[in-house]
Each structure stands twice: as C-alpha cells, then as structure tokens.
Design a protein that fits this description.
26% of the residues lie in helices and 27% in strands. The chain is α+β, with helices and mostly antiparallel strands and 204 residues long. A hairpin with a 5-residue loop joins strand 3 and strand 4. It has one domain. Strands 1-2-3-4-5 form a 5-stranded antiparallel beta sheet, covered by helices on one side. Strands 7-6-8-9 form a 4-stranded antiparallel beta sheet, covered by helices on one side. It is elongated and about 95 Å long. It is built from 1 helix and 9 strands; from the N terminus they run αβββββββββ.
C-alpha cells in the first residue's frame, strides 16, 4: 500500500510538471501569434502609406495641386491624380467617384486606430490597423532640413511645397498583454519615402 501511494504521488508530480510545461508552451505560442499579427499589421500599414506618399503629386493633366496638402507630426494628407483613365486634374475632395484614392488623409483616431480618410468616397474614415501606440511623420525639405512644415512663419523655405521625403514611424502593440510579464508587446517600423513627383527642380 505504501509503495502504491508513493507511486501515485510521484505520478502526480510528473503529471503536474508536464501540465505546467504544456500551459507555459501554450501561453508562449499565443504570445508569439499576437506578436506576428502585430508585425504583419505594422508592415502592411506602412507599406500602404509609403506607396501613396511615393505617388503624391502625380499630375498628368497639370492640375497644379499641392502634393502634400496637410503635414503635421501625427497626420498627413496626400494628393495625386492617377485614377486612369480619369486623370482629370481634379482631386480636391469633390466627391467624384472617379477620383477615389486621390485625396487621402492618414491619422490615428481616439480609439488607437490608424485611419484612412478618402475625401472622395463620402464615407467616414476607415480603420486600417488597431492597437496603435504612436504614429509620427518627419518631413525632409528641399534644403535638407527636417521637421514639420510651417506656412505661417513668413519664410519661403520648409513649407508644404518644399517637402521632398517623408519618414513614417508606426508602433503597434499586441491585443493582450504577455501573461508571463503583464506587458504588451510592441512592434515599430520606420520607413523613409521619397516623393517621386516633386523636386525635379532641385536637380537642375
């Protein structure tokens, strides 16, 4: 009887150890899945923004609009006339369905979501990514300076028209905290995007 009880106790100890390993492994796998999801989200979101920033200022009809219409540290409004075959030179939020995607604003809303607002779709801003910790834009100007443009200082440099590239920094977090640490995991991606359709006069 004593030997049986000892064997049962030892079996329970081994079973408890195996169960503990299983639970820990299960938690680790769940955390890694969330981290991978956050990584995928930040890459996809920055890729979308980079593609549209790079195309800003495309103007085959000579409409003469400002490629970057609004530029702050936490939001950007970009314009391009590229809805082929409807490159009509009109992009400024006139509600024309042919101009979808030609006048868009990226920002973070109060629910920590990265949003895209298309001025031509007559719809509220749509969420692209959840669980955004921070979104930052840094602008590089024709003279090599960096920062945020200032149209009100009376200086003709470092204005919206002088923007030549945009550095996007986006940080997102996991949906739930790491059960082992109690902290949210984060992923940050930084990408500097050259605006292709502006600045040719700088090369002269």
């Amino acid at each position: 009887m004593v030997e049986l009880l000892v064997a049962m106790v030892m079996g329970l100890v081994v079973l408890g150890a195996v169960l503990n390993i299983f639970i820990h492994q299960n938690r680790t796998n769940a955390v890694q899945q969330e981290v991978a999801y956050a990584q995928q989200n930040v890459r996809g979101a920055v890729s979308i923004m980079a593609r549209e920033i790079r195309a800003a200022g495309q103007d085959p009809q000579g409409g003469g609009f400002t490629p970057v219409a609004t530029a702050t540290g936490t939001s950007i409004r970009i314009r391009a006339d590229y809805s082929d075959p409807n490159s009509d030179g009109k992009i400024e939020g006139d509600g024309d369905a042919a101009d979808l995607g030609e006048d868009v604003t990226y920002a973070v809303n109060g629910s920590s979501q990265l949003t895209k607002d298309d001025a031509n779709d007559a719809q509220p801003a749509c969420a692209i990514v959840d669980f955004v910790n921070s979104l930052q834009f840094i602008y590089t100007f024709a003279d090599g300076g960096t920062g945020v443009p200032d149209e009100t200082d009376g200086d003709s440099t470092n204005d919206l028209a002088d923007i030549r590239s945009v550095t996007v920094q986006l940080q997102v977090s996991t949906e739930t905290p790491d059960p082992n640490t109690g902290q949210f995991r984060t992923r940050t991606l930084v990408n500097t995007v050259r605006i292709r359709n502006v600045g040719f006069q700088d090369l002269e």
